Amino acid sequence: MDFSVEDELAGHREQATAWIAANADPVWASTQKATGCYHTPALHVLLAQQGFYAAGWPREYGGSDVSPDLARAILQELARIGVKHDGWSTTSLVLNTLLDVGTEEQKRTYITAGLRGEVIIALGYTEPGSGSDVAAAQARAVRSGADWVINGQKMFTSTADQATHIFMLTRTNAGVPKHKGLTLFLVPTSSAGFEWAPVHTLGGQITTATFYTDVRIPDAARVGDVDGGWNVMRAALVYERGGGVGARPPSGTSGNVGSQRAELARQVASWSQAARRPDGSRIWDDPGVQERLARIAIESEVYKLLWMRSSWIAAAGGSPGTEGSAAKLYMTEREQRHHWDLLDILGAEAVLSKGAHDAPIHAAVEEAFRYGVVGTVYGGSSEIMREIIAERQLGLPRVRNS
Amino acid sequence: MAVDLSLSDEQAAVQQAFAEFFARESPIRVVREAEPVGFSPDLWKRLADLGASAMGLPGSGADSLTLCLVAEELGRRLAPVPLIEALVAVDLLASLDAASLLRPLTEGADIATLALDSPYAGRLRLVPAGAVARTVLALDGSDLVSLQRTAPPGHEPNFGCSPLADWPLADARLSTLASGPRAADLHQAGRALWKLLMSAALNGIQASALEIAVAYVKSREAFGRQIGWFQAVQHRLADVAVAGDGARYLTYEAAWARDGGAAADADRLASMAFLFSAETSFFTCREALQFHGGYGYALEYDIQLYFRRAKAWPLALGDPRSELLRVAKLTYPAQES
Fold first, then answer.
1. Catalytic annotation on A104?
2. Between residues 219 and 258 of chain A, which touch chain B (CB distance below 8 Å)?
3. Fewer CB in 10 Å around end: N or C, chain A?
4. Distance (Å, rounded) from C-alpha B303 to C-alpha A102?
């Protein structure tokens, strides 16, 4: 066995940081935080124009000569300085899906424009009445001549306000079992009858709810077969797990997850070695503080290893199923508990927000605490992960009927 | 990526050989018959014939990871033999070049062990394998000493059915093996290896307890269904399955570190693996016992054998909180005020 993690992008880090120094606007990170919008249009245009999005894509659909590793390094380094690229994450996920299941015309249209930064696609799976049970979608698509007419609502359609299209899961047949009556469409957000409204979140991100009232789209906007949407979803979910937005390690080199997260605990530890309680005692000197910090170190190491197993299987050409679920479940559940403990250690000042007088560690813990809440839900809730492990790893009986 | 989580052919072969050995030679009947002392002389002899206690010797080809794989198989079958303690003693004596002490151990003629704590009030308290060993290595003040007796002292009854015994210093023949900082370093290295191998054994216990639990909840019915159908059962078993996998990899990582992968971090990782395996193994046994309902409380069911040992074995090191504080100090080097 070998547990040494090498930075596979090491050869590109320098160039990536140089690119960022030359091109990135220092306000991007703070603007994203302040607005809750994790898509920066100016950055999107820049990355597209310079061929970074097109890196590694087939030439006939607009692929560029840029090194995909350099492109990944740039996106990672941007994430490291707090600049997210959610619009591209969901767009690339859908473009990958189109590469698998789209028509030739769709590939030429959407992939080419997507790589140029002209098409931005948000995911429209979740509805007000269905989240984990994604196949229970109720938004209706009905044939009308050569077109389709769509009515319904989608929830947590993140970056829909910035997007040109929604990759939308609809019900086209209500008379069959739920998985068999679904169809996917690419719905232009410029369509008459499309509306969105902001949804404010605990973590500060502003996501959206989207509304579809008699939205008329051509059949050419249909992805995959009529009523064959579940097959399309399966293809799309592979990309979601593999590197899009869902069950995956946070940005950074694979296998490096634990050490990144342990960084917050390290900051609190070093804060506690200087800070004092109102009674004058040094916080670190409380064995209860050290004990909690030690636990965080141990459990962070464990989730690093669980991710390492999952990435190792993937790197060897396998497909991490229950192993990915295990890593996602353990990491997100532990991480939340770690945030609670770290807040407790910070004491009364833990509640201070950015901008407050002397907020410990620039309010990094309270931000992580609020943002971390969604970890155990998105990309498959903990309950779904446990069910997958119970069923597929332990061989316990399947609980759900469908 | 240099990460590789597969076993080498040699490691896999040793793992399989010991899995088969313990499955054949240490069925649960042998475990029960060896109670309350927790020692089967017959099993120990067979193990010694395989050369198991000499496996850790330099040049034997067995790295720390291999030793962990063997300890894991031992734990899986609750094998009533002091192999972990013997491996630790052999490792220490090998680094001291103490050939005269070493030979009887590697030949299986004697059992040696390490006292994890220093003597207090004239005795070494509750020495692991102390009730079956005739040689104990201990840190006495600033000296690393060996204590020898012609026969081990009496066994102290305990719920883990471990061969624990007190060793009064006055009753033993003492000789000094090392002194000063070297003695302390060697003793700490011995403790670290004990923690590492114990974590592996606890992972073995964990794996068995999970298997027993899964088999039980699939066969037992309540309210007209197998109880393994209920999510209250499924989800809790999923949680301990994930933690158990994590514990195994943490142990393997600590072994890899000790074998040179990250030597500077090996000591800390051994402590982390020990703590996490101890917690995970016992909690898995607890969940397994709980899902047995009233039968979990009955001695005729096997799960209680695992439950007792998963709690008792790691307690040989004392309150795990002090080990946690050690991990804290090693992880977050303090600017002491």
1. no
2. 254-255
3. C
4. 54
